[in-house]
């Protein structure tokens, strides 16, 4: 693609707080690893460095995943959704994604949903 | 699990607007189909009806996916993340997930990310 990173980031609809939700997915197994938040600068770093950077809402700082833990996320692709307010980042996750030590951040808490009916073809 | 749906919903940390991000994933292929938003009532309906219901931020109303389009989402499971502010709902998607007619809402717009290095074992 010939558009610049600025042009690509300009297609994102950020929240009033200047953030966009970023779904992080293991590129080959398609596991959903975690959901994080990015501002325009975190997204720019993610798209240009090959490593995932978030904006930490709790710490109010940039957070390049794995710089402390070693559990880095190596970018394999990134896509924007149809209305521009969610990003899907496909990564090679090194080690566990979750700070609790589980593979994904969704491993621990089953919400015990009622299963819907089978689809009718 | 023996906890009630109220107890499960009480584990969710909603935003100041009363919403939680919901990642919708095809249960078997693990494709990420879309990201939507739920308030407590939309989550309750999703967990108890076997069909996915969102809160539409633009229309300010409940939106049971597929009631108009026929492209329903049949629940297969739902999980909460480690800090309680994102839900992963696994579904059987009937038809395309995206209102544009594509399989997922992430099909159209490649953000052309720089690929990170290969992981070192």
TrEMBL record, chains A, B:
Task: Could you list this entry's UniProt keywords, alphabetically sorted.
Answer: Amino-acid biosynthesis, Cytoplasm, Histidine biosynthesis, Hydrolase, Magnesium, Metal-binding, Zinc
Is the keyword Zinc-finger assigned to this protein? no
Q: Phosphoribosyl-AMP cyclohydrolase domain location, by residue?
A: 34-106
Database matches in Gene3D superfamilies:
Phosphoribosyl-AMP cyclohydrolase
TM ranges are none
| Domain of life according to the entry | Bacteria
InterPro entries xrefs:
PRA-CH (IPR026660), PRib_AMP_CycHydrolase_dom (IPR002496), PRib_AMP_CycHydrolase_sf (IPR038019)
* Localization, UniProt: Cytoplasm
The UniProt record gives the binding positions of Zn(2+) as 82, 98, 105
- Residues of the signal peptide: none
Binding residues for Mg(2+): 81, 83, 85
**Pfam family of this protein, just one?**
PRA-CH
Identify the metabolic or biological route this protein is part of: Amino-acid biosynthesis; L-histidine biosynthesis; L-histidine from 5-phospho-alpha-D-ribose 1-diphosphate: step 3/9
The record's catalysed reaction(s) read:
1-(5-phospho-beta-D-ribosyl)-5'-AMP + H2O = 1-(5-phospho-beta-D-ribosyl)-5-[(5-phospho-beta-D-ribosylamino)methylideneamino]imidazole-4-carboxamide
What EC number(s) does this enzyme carry? 3.5.4.19
Q: Which cofactor does it need?
A: Mg(2+); Zn(2+)
Tell me how the cofactor is bound.
Binds 1 Mg(2+) ion per subunit. Binds 1 zinc ion per subunit.
Concerning NCBIfam families, the annotation shows:
PRK00051.1 (NF000768)
Q: Fill in the subunit field for this protein.
A: Homodimer.
Q: What does this protein do?
A: Catalyzes the hydrolysis of the adenine ring of phosphoribosyl-AMP.
Concerning its family, UniProt says:
Belongs to the PRA-CH family.
* Name the UniProt record assigns to this protein: Phosphoribosyl-AMP cyclohydrolase
This chain is encoded by the gene named hisI
């Amino acid at each position: 693609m010939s558009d610049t990173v600025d042009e690509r980031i300009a297609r994102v609809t950020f929240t009033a707080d200047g953030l966009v939700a970023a779904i992080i997915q293991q590129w080959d197994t398609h596991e959903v690893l975690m959901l994080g938040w990015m501002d325009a600068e975190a997204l720019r770093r993610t798209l240009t460095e090959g490593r995932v950077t978030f904006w930490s809402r709790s710490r109010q700082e940039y957070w390049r995943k794995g710089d402390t833990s070693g559990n880095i996320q190596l970018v394999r692709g990134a896509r924007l959704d149809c209305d521009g307010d969610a990003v899907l980042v496909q990564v090679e996750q090194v080690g566990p994604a979750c700070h609790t030590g589980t593979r994904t951040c969704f491993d621990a808490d089953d919400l015990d949903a009622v299963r819907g009916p089978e689809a009718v073809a």
